[in-house]
Write a structure and sequence with these properties.
Elements lengths: L1 H22 L5 H25 L5 H28 L13
Helix pairs in contact: 1-2, 2-3
């Protein structure tokens, strides 16, 4: 029982550190995408232990993983298209008005 609460707190701390890295001023799009994936992983751990603790079905975690994979693929496709058009993944060289 105490071990479950430790895992809850650990996943919440992981999420908060991921949020801290995400909102910090980063130069590269890749580091931002990695922090988003870290946040998603911590949310998955939290969801898994919550569903396990409440004796719910684990079927929802498969939906969550499916959407997480879609989010990762979309982020990587944006990264690849940005590198092909601009030559790098710096935020200062990318402007939304140029699209």
């Amino acid at each position: 029982m105490a071990n479950m609460f430790l895992m809850f707190y650990l996943s919440m701390i992981m999420f908060l550190f991921g949020c801290l890295v995400f909102v910090s001023n980063r130069k590269h799009l890749l580091s931002t995408l990695l922090s988003l994936e870290y946040m998603v992983l911590s949310l998955f751990i939290f969801l898994f232990f919550y569903l396990n603790f409440m004796n719910y079905e684990m079927y929802f975690s498969m939906f969550f993983l499916t959407f997480c994979v879609c989010e990762g693929v979309l982020g990587l496709s944006i990264l690849v298209s940005m590198i092909r058009t601009h030559g790098n993944d710096y935020f200062q060289s990318f402007s939304i008005l140029q699209c």
